[in-house]
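Each lists chain and fold; for instance:
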Amino acid sequence: MKKNTSKNTKGKIVSAAWKLFYEQGYDDTTVEEIIDESKTSKGSFYHYFEGKDALLSSLSYLFDEKYEELMQSEKLPENSFEKLLYLNNEMFDMIENRVDIDLLTRLFSTQLVTKGERHLLDHGRVYYKLLRKIVVTGQEKGELTDEMSANEIVKLYALCEHGLMYDWCLAKGEYSLKSYAKKVMPVFLSGIKSLK
C-alpha cells in the first residue's frame, strides 16, 4: 500500500510539473507552484526531487504513466503490430500537446552527456516492459516475426521512436510529430511483421 501511495504522490508531482512547464514554460514555473498544483507538500516534493532541475529526467515517468493508461484503452487493437502503431500515435499526440519542445530537447541533450542515469534507456521502465509483453505475445500469436528476438524488436521500436522525437526537436517542431510518425512508423517497422 505504501509503495502505491508513494507512486501516486510522485506521479502527481511529475504530472503537475509538466502541465505547468507546458503552460508557463520551465523558467517561469516555481517549485511552490508545482507543489500547489500537485496538492502535495514541500516535504513530499523534496523527498522525490532535489529541485526543479531534477524533474527534467522525470519525463520518462510521465511517458510510462501514459503507456499504462493507453494499455487500458478500449481502442487498443488486438493485433500486436497495430497495437504498437496505436501506442506510438497516441504517445506522440500527447507529446505534441502536453510537452514543451524546448524541454524535450533539453531532456535529450542531458541524456546524451550524462554520466549518471540515462532514463530513456532504462530497461526497467514500464515502457520497455509493456513493449516486451506486446512483442512476445505478438510472436506467440504469429503476428510478429520470430526471426528477431523480442529484445531486438523492442530495441528497434524504441530506436524509431527516439529517432523521430530527436529529429522533431532538431527541426524545432516545424512539422507534426504525430502525423509524420503515422506515415513512417509502419515503414520502419515493416520488417517485424510475420510473413507466415
